[in-house]
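Hi R.,

As promised on Friday, here is the backbone we talked about, encoded as structure tokens. Could you run it through your design pipeline when you get a chance and send me back a sequence?
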């Protein structure tokens, strides 16, 4: 009986999320040309098969939240698979890949904008170590700065301007930034977040999250949305 119930559940998921699986697979096949679309699809369906308990847990949530969690998890599964295949075909170890911590990117931006080559004080405070060696080693942090600067200059002029306004004076309040960006404080935050997101994408993208991290992020977002609704009412 348990097997029959699970088969029905997987059939339901196939019917409900088939279009999403195809969409995510197509998206990542374009980004990782060494991967076959069908192989990515298979990997995503394997994610469903291997997370029955998690899916049962999420099924108690509102449909909107459940869809968000599944979509994020499928994209994380696609990233992990495609990065593994990319590493295999290029002949390097997956462990060699690291993702830039957003706090490190933010710490370097003021010096990049000011065209300074001093080690940011915030980096010393963070004691960030992306791989082997200490970030305070000359070649290590200069390589980090170079990568972040290259990613920054690949941004559109509009997004560069947003980040210049944001990080030229780190002590500036959002009300002041909003006036310079000709928007509201919330609008200024959104502009900065979008520009930072584009910058991180230029650096290779966000670190894939585990299902637990994905659920925690979704819960925090739902809580914030609820608080905003209460404030508006």
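Update: got your reply. Pasting your designed sequence below so it's all in one thread:
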């Amino acid at each position: 009986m348990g097997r029959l119930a699970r088969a029905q559940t997987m059939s339901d998921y196939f019917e409900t999320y088939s279009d999403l699986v195809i969409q995510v697979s197509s998206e990542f096949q374009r980004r990782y040309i060494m991967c076959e679309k069908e192989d990515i699809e298979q990997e995503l369906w394997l994610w469903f098969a291997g997370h029955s308990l998690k899916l049962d847990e999420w099924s108690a949530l509102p449909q909107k939240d459940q869809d968000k969690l599944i979509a994020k998890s499928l994209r994380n599964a696609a990233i992990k698979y495609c990065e593994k295949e990319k590493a295999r075909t290029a002949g390097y170890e997956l462990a060699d890949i690291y993702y830039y911590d957003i706090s490190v990117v933010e710490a370097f931006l003021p010096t990049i904008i000011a065209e300074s080559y001093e080690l940011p004080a915030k980096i010393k405070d963070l004691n960030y170590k992306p791989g082997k060696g200490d970030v305070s080693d000359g070649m290590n942090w200069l390589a980090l700065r170079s990568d972040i600067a290259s990613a920054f200059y690949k941004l559109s002029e509009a997004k560069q301007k947003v980040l210049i306004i944001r990080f030229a004076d780190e002590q500036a309040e959002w009300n002041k930034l909003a006036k310079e960006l000709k928007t509201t404080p919330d609008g200024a935050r959104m502009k900065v977040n979008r520009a930072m997101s584009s910058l991180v994408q230029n650096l290779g993208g966000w670190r894939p999250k585990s299902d637990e991290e994905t659920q925690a992020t979704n819960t925090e977002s739902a809580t914030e949305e609820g608080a905003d609704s209460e404030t508006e009412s």
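One thing I noticed while checking it: The first helix runs from residue 2 to 31.

Thanks again,
M.
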